Amino acid sequence: MANVKSRITFAWIAIAMGACSTGPQVRAVQPLSATSDAPYENVLVVFLFSKFDPRRYLETEIVNELSEMGINATASTSLMDSRTPVTRETFLKMVKDIDADAVMVSQLVSLDTKEKMVDMSPEATYNLRPTYYYNVFSVDLQEYVQPMAADFKHSILLGTQLYSVRDKDAVWAIESQTKINPGLGEHVSYSMYVDEAEALTARMSKDGLIGK
Q1: What is the pLDDT of residues 76-100, one digit of tens each?
Q2: What separation in angstroms does the CA of 94 have from each of 38, 44, 131, 206, 208?
Q3: Who wins on pLDDT, 1 or 151?
Q4: Does 150 reside within a domain?
Q5: HEC string for 173-184
Q6: Distance between CA 211 and CA 101 in Å, rounded?
Q7: I need a labelling partner for 138 at 20 to 30 A (CA). Which of 29, 97, 109, 145 fits?
Q8: Rounded distance, CA 114 to CA 14, Å?
Q9: Residue-number span of the structural domain to which 29 is assigned
Q10: 81-85, 101-105, 109-113, 160-164: which range is least confident on average?
Q11: Which helix (H) or strand (E) holds 47?
Q12: Is 136 left (phi over 0), alpha (psi -120 to 50) or beta?
């Protein structure tokens, strides 16, 4: 488990989430229960992950999207810090404090990483000098070869559930998969958090979970 956590941390923070990525592909796992009390207007947003900053980034973007839709939404990381225990009791207190009617919970389902070592293009300098012979030249060639680089491809699968506070149970669930190929030499990008939040909240709206 520790190895998986370290790999996903690397993928989400250090590999540049989104340099060359496909948008999240969302599929339903549990349709909205017909007996639920949806739509919801006051949602607590929770991302279960080992590192505090990725939790905060995704929760913040989801809250931003929900707020633009007119929904009251609160990121759990706005009510805690990195030392706060990530326990059921902690989140239940948040639900009570903000009087939430639903809790949105996202978490890692799987991470598949493929690595391939790639030869870098060498640079070369040429020095041509004439000789005593007609149309014959002396050529000095010097190549500067960079070390091989790692080309990573990632497939990240997140599971998201919505819990009704009234029913004390999950009333809806989806999975979202994102494929990432950062490319060689790319830098960290924040865009995947934004893309993921947009995909999740759009599906929530489409499925009738949120509204005024």
Answers
A1: 999 999 999 999 999 999 999 999 9
A2: 20, 8, 84, 27, 24
A3: 151
A4: yes
A5: EEEEEEEECCCC
A6: 12
A7: 145
A8: 15
A9: 2-206
A10: 109-113
A11: strand 42-48
A12: beta
Place of tokens 């989430």: 17
CATH number at residue 150: 3.40.50.10610
Could you tell me if residue 129 is inside a domain?
Answer: yes
The pTM (predicted TM-score) of the whole model is 0.73
Q: At what angle do helices 191-206 and 52-68 cross, to 10 degrees?
A: 50
Does 212 reside within a domain? no
For residues 97 and 178, what is the distance between their CA atoms, to the nearest angstrom?
34
With respect to residue 44, please indicate whether it lies within any of the assigned structural domains: yes
Range name among 9-13, 25-29, 163-167, 193-197 with the lowest pLDDT average: 9-13
Place of tokens 């939404």: 73
Q: Tally the domains of the chain.
A: 1
Cα–chain-centroid distance for residue 175?
A: 13
Average pLDDT of the chain? 82
Residue with tokens 């493929």: 114
